[in-house]
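Sanity check record (used in CI):
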Amino acid sequence: MSEPIHQPPLRQLLKRAAYAVDAVVHKGQNLNRVLAQQPVEGRATVQDICYGSLREYALLAALRDALLSNPLKDSLIAALLVVGLRQLRVRPDATHTVVNEAVEAAAAIQPWARGLVNGVLRNYLRQADALSAAVIRKESVRWNYPQWWIDKLRVAYPEHWQAALTAGNQHAPMTLRVNQHHGSAATYLELLRDAGVEATQTGAFALQLVQPVAVAQLPGFASGRVSVQDAGAQLAAPLLDLHDGLRVLDACAAPGGKTGHILETADVALTALDSDMARLERVRENLDRLQLKATLACGDAAQPDTWWDGQPFDRILADVPCSASGVVRRHPDIKWLRRPDDIAHFAAQQAAMLPALWRCLAHGGKLLYATCSIFPEENQRQVDAFLDRHDDASQLDLEGEWINPGQLLPDEQHDGFFYALLAKN
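Expected output for 16S rRNA (cytosine(967)-C(5))-methyltransferase:
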């Protein structure tokens, strides 16, 4: 039996969370990579503090700044104030402890900051309601997104932008994909109930848990009976119109969730391509767990001559790099890492990949263009530009309910995704 993981004192957790938030907001670093470098002890708590702090970063930073007499030059202490304010908001039963532990965290970072942190946090407790009412008059603070992001969605989705922003600030559901090789979703639902895990069926092979659990608690997870995959991502394999014997390419395959689903759906000859060898190893691990096989290839999807054998594919999944604007509830750092000109950069990448992959598609074949973005420049506009340049391509209608054709916005059941199915005439 393994030893329980020791939980460090709150002051250490606040300090570690401050370093992580500072790394994201002020240094532009990816939160998951930052957290992966931290000790295992207390990492889950640090992650929770960071996720909460970044979901509400605009509000917390506005509250902090309203409580300061002068702008704070030390970015790490500024981040500590953000995580301290977040803890005060979610732990109203432990405000005394939170303030004291935040002060000790400040002392460990910059001894001069003890009094500052103590004063700011205690002043917040005295003025919380009035301060909050004042700062949320600013739209970016009220919604907790950069203003350019809000403006872009308001133009793209006049009737749905508020719901999309709200959904992006919620906790993401944990959704499972049942491996149809091992039985039905209804059968697995009974196994979950026997294990004390509550869930509801939301798709043909999709089960949404009432409360997230560790994968070790999922019956048969290690042997490939089930995978964790958002319901929106589970649409890709069915949309590809798969049947046995096809030659299929999964471009930009890592970490392999859609790769596994394709192989669960039909007996196909699948090549999984990714430009990052380390990420490709995650595809291998996923397939090993699912007891499925594919040909793995490391290469750039925009340069087929470096990895393609010249034999056309019947189906291609082009799950291209994108802004990930549809999955910010799972990755709240994305809101603060992205810049307006990043969207044009991603669009340029996509515009290079799509025609390159089109060369690899057999006549009569189908290519599914996919993103986890909700920005039109990466989605239908990208597809329209491609169709204008390729007379041998046509966009097929997709069944289902979409905000715009092929566009899912995040809601209580799925993240934001875009799909366009293109046929080669």
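The chain has three domains: 10-143, 175-228, 233-424. If this sentence no longer matches the regenerated tokens, the check is flagged for review.
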